[in-house]
Amino acid sequence: MSIEAWYMDSSDEDQRKPHRLTPNQPASMEQLRQLGVFHWKLNADIYETDPELEQIRKDQGYSYMDIVAVEKDTLPHYEETLKMFFKEHLHLDDEIRYILDGRAYFDVRDKQDRWIRISMSKGDLITLPAGIYHRFTLDETNYTKAMRLFVGEPVWKAYNRPADDFEIRQKYLASLQES
Q1: Domain count of the fold of the chain
Q2: 91 assigned to a ligand binding site
Q3: φ, ψ (nearest 5 deg) of residue 153
Q4: Spatial distance between the Cα atoms of 104 and 96, rounded to a whole number of angstroms
Q5: Is 99 left (phi over 0), alpha (psi -120 to 50) or beta?
């Protein structure tokens, strides 16, 4: 089972709305893979003992994990934090998120710098490669609970666009030329 993704319109309306182009222009799993974005669908109800999750963590070297709930009642500075997550940025390491409950969106830039919105729901595990410009937001339900996975020590540092001079960005762009 795959996730749903589509090209976005350029509306400044609420970031939590779907923002589909009219007519809708889906983005395929193959298009996402060419950008270095990978997805697994797991059983989030058994995440604590899931052998499939354990195998992915072992295979990918995801040694650190924590869980965060993104919702108004529990996340300090909720509105400011959501705005920060939605600023276009990149990381020096892969971003790995597993949705345990609720829904959210990851937006990534394609090779032509167009936004693709990826709809995430319970059971979706996604990896975004280091150096890809992206952003995150909730959908209109205003809630998600996610596992954050890292190789080694957790790093949450985001570099807002423009960050094209970073070596990891150049490496990412070079990888796109190969695919």
Answers
A1: 1
A2: yes
A3: -70, 140
A4: 14
A5: beta
The H-or-E segment that residue 146 falls in is strand 143-150
| pLDDT number for residue 1 | 61
- pLDDT tens-digit readout, 62-80: 999 999 999 999 899 999 9
As a whole number of Å, the end-to-end CA separation of the chain is: 23
Average pLDDT over the chain reads: 96
Burial class (CB in 10 A: 0-12, 13-18, 19+), 114: middle
Token pair of 168 as six digits: 């990891």
pLDDT higher than threshold 70 for residue 124: yes
19 is in an annotated binding site: no
Instruction: Provide, rounded to the nearest whole percent, the portion of the chain with pLDDT above 90.
Output: 96
CATH number at residue 75: 2.60.120.10
Annotated binding residue 95: yes
To the question of whether residue 52 is assigned a binding role by annotation, the answer is no
pLDDT tens per residue across span 24-57 = 999 999 999 999 999 999 999 999 999 999 999 9
Name the residue range of residue 62's domain: 4-178
Say which residue the tokens 């600023």 belong to.
87
